[in-house]
Amino acid sequence: MAECRASGSGSSGDSLDKSITLPPDEIFRNLENAKRFAIDIGGSLTKLAYYSTVQHKVAKVRSFDYSGKDTEQDHEPPYEISVQEEVTARLHFVKFENTYIEACLDFIKDHLVNTETKVIQATGGGAYKFKDLIEEKLQLKVDKEDVMTCLIKGCNFVLKNIPHEAFVYQKDSDPEFRFQTNHPNIFPYLLVNIGSGVSIVKKFDELLQLASRGQHTNVDMLVQDIYGGAHETLGLSGNLIASSFGKSATADQEFSKEDMAKSLLHMISNDIGQLACLYARLHCLDRVYFGGFFIRGHPVTMRTITYSINFFSKGEVQALFLRHEGYLGAIGAFLKGAEQDNPNQYSWGENYAGSSGLMSSSPELCPTQRARSGTFDLLEMDRLERPLVNLPLLLDPSSYVPDTVDLTDDALARKYWLTCFEEALDGVVKRAVASQPGSVDAAERAEKFRQKYWNKLQTLRHQPFAYGTLTVRSLLDTREHCLNEFNFPDPYSKVKQKDNGVALKCFQRVVSALDALDWEERQLALVKGLLAGNVFDWGAKAVSDVLESDPQFGFEEAKKKLQERPWLVDSYGKWLQRLKGPPHKCALIFADNSGVDVILGVFPFVRELLSRGTEVILACNSGPALNDVTYNESLIVAERIAAMDPVIHSALREERLLLVQTGSSSPCLDLSRLDKGLAVLVRERGADLVVIEGMGRAVHTNYHAALCCESLKLAVIKNSWLAERLGGQLFSVIFKYEVPAE
């Protein structure tokens, strides 16, 4: 977030440069590729939306042609890697005070290059007031859109695409925001937009600051002032307001501005809450979203509205607030103007690298952000290649929470993991530079990445709620976004290439050893192989230290690292009994790491299931994250294994083994945002077993995920702090086999 140094508008881009701490090109990012615009101008704030194309680098893998070669004798890698340019779509949203509108329009005009449109969609009261100015500055025709239609369209968009968009406000919690998991069906709901028209004072922020220091009980008449305490017959507590400003009508004294402001805010907020509650009850709704300039994250406002809704509805209606409520109109106006492109057919994801995040204006929680006036607030949304949906096998999608630990809530865990990610930063920078040995500016870009991610971590130390619920997953995803921002699409590409090559050479020996075992011994060996493979996680410091210091550390050495049975969580006996029964119809397996993990751990396990008559869907990440295997890498690996193994070969040919992408580029797994094609396949094949492997996918996320079919969650704990928290030690084993209740 960029804070203004001086107030007042200017007439050129130069004056904009002088008024803010961030360079304008870091606020209006990628403006030269902007294609379409929309603007929402309220009584106090301007919200600009524009769509642009973003060019960035991606790592591509391609299989070599091995025809006529003895690949077992080759020292060549199993595939080649190339870095290519790719163009994707991004939505940019910038929010600023109306004071700066002229300077901002000048800057935009000077930097417009590739816009495809001659029209700008506009909504809000300012669409009329500033129409001539916009048309003069941008040479775009203003097309005015209905305010309420835009707000609803915008609200639908953020609720569908941003998982932790809505939150409840809890007065005495630390932090005070409690984010809600998005319901798969966002309707029905009531949206209450409280804009600048509600505030009847010139300096609304000053009023709120006064109110935060005031005591309304000095001005308001309470129930206890009338009855001497609570009115138990009517169920009225003693501290309930009986009459706003009641004491000012009877007492001959001066009242402080602070107390008067607090009383006024309570009166307005209670009235709004009661009206909203009446409408909600009239239409049988239990969710009410509040937005507008009146809210803007102000604790006193949210606290009063929450109390009012709860009181008048007797707890049956919930007051919810939105992280991006200020952008609803701009988003809706943009969607109206882009209807021919059907933007709702895509899924979108927040780009943490280019978004400001939610900032508290509480004086106690964040003094540096107390003065909210004069700030530029940013939001970026990237269009995802494929639409994302729920996994059909979730028992109750509406109550599914991917993450095991909420770091927003757990201060001790939050402190540990933020420090952990800070300490790992040098290693990530080193790996990023090493992944691009031919680049002259790799070191410079890596330093920019370091600074950006470090700044994000410091923001999250002070404002853990900035991007919704803070989790290990969100910290990992933020790091990936920042790496992509500076064109490090796959820092582990060379590591994965080497690891896959080494593991492929061992595949036949491992499978032959398994085939020589009797049935029961083989089942345990297969599980131990899965677990040993999962040790090879370059994202875990305890492992990367070993791999870098001992190049000979391999599959057999990893097996020796594993905890002896009984494991920390050990359902193996129950799993073995299940295997003695009929085969599963279809298993969905979420793979984790490249190299030893997928080739020597997962594929032998897949091979055994296929031999039992079970079809297998093997799901891998769509994009790179750490050394996790990607879908494109898995295709090449499977092709190489099929050339060596008739079981895999025939299963691929007969489509009993299907390789699919998850739609994710994260080391963790959100089962509510998976590739639509994967979900369709799961339904069509009647999957009745889900296997989730890896610490990120099965421990940091989905450890408590309830499915409507059998599931295996297995991982090796490669973090000593986490192992201790779970009651184990480093390299403790999680083997969790679950059967849904009848």
From TrEMBL:
One of its GO terms (molecular function) is pantothenate kinase activity. Gene3D superfamilies: 3.30.420.40, 3.30.420.510, AF1104-like, Uncharacterised protein PF01937, DUF89, domain 2, Uncharacterised protein PF01937, DUF89, domain 3. It catalyses: (R)-4'-phosphopantetheine + H2O = (R)-pantetheine + phosphate; (R)-4'-phospho-S-sulfopantetheine + H2O = (R)-S-sulfopantetheine + phosphate; (R)-4'-phosphopantetheine sulfonate + H2O = (R)-pantetheine sulfonate + phosphate. GO terms for biological process: coenzyme A biosynthetic process. Activity is strongly promoted by Co(2+), Ni(2+), Mg(2+) and Mn(2+). Activity is inhibited by EDTA. Residues 423-729 form the Damage-control phosphatase ARMT1-like metal-binding domain. It is an enzyme of class 3 (hydrolase). Its cofactor is Ni(2+); Mn(2+). The keyword Zinc does not apply. Keywords: ATP-binding, Coenzyme A biosynthesis, Cytoplasm, Hydrolase, Manganese, Metal-binding, Nickel, Nitration, Nucleotide-binding. GO terms for cellular component: cytosol; nucleus. It is found in: Cytoplasm. Its EC number is 3.1.3.-. InterPro entries: ARMT-1-like_metal-bd_sf, ARMT1-like_metal-bd, At2g17340_3_helix_bundle, ATPase_NBD, PanK_long, Type_II_PanK. It comes from the Eukaryota. In the N-terminal section; belongs to the type II pantothenate kinase family. Phosphatase which shows a preference for 4'-phosphopantetheine and its oxidatively damaged forms (sulfonate or S-sulfonate), providing strong indirect evidence that the phosphatase activity pre-empts damage in the coenzyme A (CoA) pathway. Hydrolyzing excess 4'-phosphopantetheine could constitute a directed overflow mechanism to prevent its oxidation to the S-sulfonate, sulfonate, or other forms. Hydrolyzing 4'-phosphopantetheine sulfonate or S-sulfonate would forestall their conversion to inactive forms of CoA and acyl carrier protein. Homodimer. Interacts with PKM. This is 4'-phosphopantetheine phosphatase. It comes from Cervus elaphus hippelaphus.
